[in-house]
Write a structure and sequence with these properties.
368 residues; 14 strands; alpha/beta; 40% helix; binds pyridoxal-5'-phosphate
Length: 368
């Protein structure tokens, strides 16, 4: 069986480091806050290119609280432009912050938000753009910032799948108001539970997000405003510090696996590979291809012992949870087509070259 991701292989490969980090947190009983929490916030900020980081309980909260601090909590009338082809959390965070997700179509080549569609969707009620760096490929942030500047919009990037990615040499959050990250276990930088972060060049904004995630606290029992609790715990911070040290090597390995897939699939006309812009340094959170009869191919792969996946089978505008937004099922045709055709192949840093070849052989067989 070749799994989609293999977290056990990662643990086994670095067990001693992980166990030592965990033992230290246990010995100190620094379960909330503590030295690892502080150190990881600094180390992740440095990793993101220098700036400030707020650590939170998950990536969804990181996006929501960043929007709330940047724009103020909305009253449900103003809009934020984002992609429909994303994990539902993007739209949930926008709605929880008090804004209407204004969903736009994707570029069929990259499966990323169509930026000209995003520009066209901007109206008098638009307050912000939330670009989603899906599958580990960043959208063209230069273009996003042009659109934002032309209309006076805020920009918070959903970088949950894009730790260590770049576009034209700039990483998530370095050109915009900031970027939210997820440390869900299967993400490129994943904790052993839930976790998230908001990175920004704006130290004040990051500090306000951190405060909002910690009861609006200004001192142990002094609270500036009524907020909420969404903190990254000490164990997760300890584990993430270990993993951050390995992330450059893991990212390099993901790229090598993706390049191998690219080579092996070149000339296979039954498969369309999701395109990567030459200016993008993708980090391949997922390696995604498009096939006709996707569900049949997926079932055949499963039968053949390949743990492929689909990200995502139902776009936000077709979700029961967002029916109230009132989109017709065919409102975003490229998004709906992508949702029917995308297929994520196994990719994780510990995956060997042989496994990549086996996946491709079995995929060819599954295509029939
Ligand atoms: C994982 C993910 C999130 C949410 O992160 P959580 O930590 O699970 O809350 C948001 N957006 C995208 C694109 C994601 O992949």
């Amino acid at each position: 069986m070749i799994p989609l991701v293999d977290l056990r292989a990662q643990y086994e490969a670095h067990r001693e480091e992980f166990d030592a980090a965990m033992a230290e947190v246990l010995a100190r009983t620094s379960f909330i806050g503590g030295p690892d929490h502080k150190a990881f916030a600094q180390e992740f900020a440095d990793f993101c290119g220098g700036g400030s980081v707020a650590l939170l309980g998950n990536g969804t909260d990181a996006l929501e609280l960043a929007l709330v601090e940047k724009l103020g909590r909305g009253d449900g009338t103003a809009e934020i432009v984002t992609a429909s082809h994303t994990f539902i959390a993007t739209a949930e965070a926008i709605e929880r912050a008090g804004y209407i997700p204004r969903l736009v179509d994707v570029d069929p080549a990259t499966c990323l938000m169509d930026l000209e569609a995003a520009a066209a969707a901007v109206g008098p009620q638009t307050k912000a753009i939330v670009p989603v760096h899906l599958y580990g490929q960043m959208v063209d942030m230069g273009r996003v910032m042009e659109i934002a500047a032309a209309h006076g919009l805020a920009v918070i990037e959903d970088a949950a799948q894009a730790h260590a990615a770049a576009f034209d040499g700039a990483g998530p959050g370095t050109l915009s108001d900031g970027a939210s990250f997820s440390f869900y276990p299967g993400k490129n930088l994943g904790a052993w539970g839930d976790g998230g972060a908001f990175f920004s060049k704006d130290a004040d904004l990051a500090a306000r997000v951190a405060k909002r995630a910690d009861h609006g606290r200004s001192d142990k029992y002094l609270h500036e405003f009524s907020a909420q609790n969404s903190r990254l715990d000490g164990l997760q911070a300890g584990i993430l510090r270990v993993k951050l040290r390995h992330l450059p090597a893991w990212t390099a390995r993901r790229r090598a696996i993706a390049a191998r897939y690219d080579d092996l699939l070149a000339g296979e006309n039954r498969i369309a590979r999701v395109a990567v812009d030459p200016r993008a340094e993708a980090v391949y959170h997922l390696y995604v291809v498009r096939v006709a009869e996707r569900d049949r191919v997926l079932a055949a792969l499963k039968e053949a012992g390949v743990g492929a996946g689909v990200h995502y089978p139902v776009p936000v505008h077709e979700q029961p949870a967002f029916r109230h937004l009132g989109y017709a099922p065919d409102a975003l045709p490229e998004t709906s087509r992508a949702a029917r055709e995308v297929l994520s192949l196994p990719i994780y840093p510990e995956m060997g070259d042989e496994a990549v070849e086996t996946v491709v052989e079995r995929l060819r067989a599954a295509l029939g």
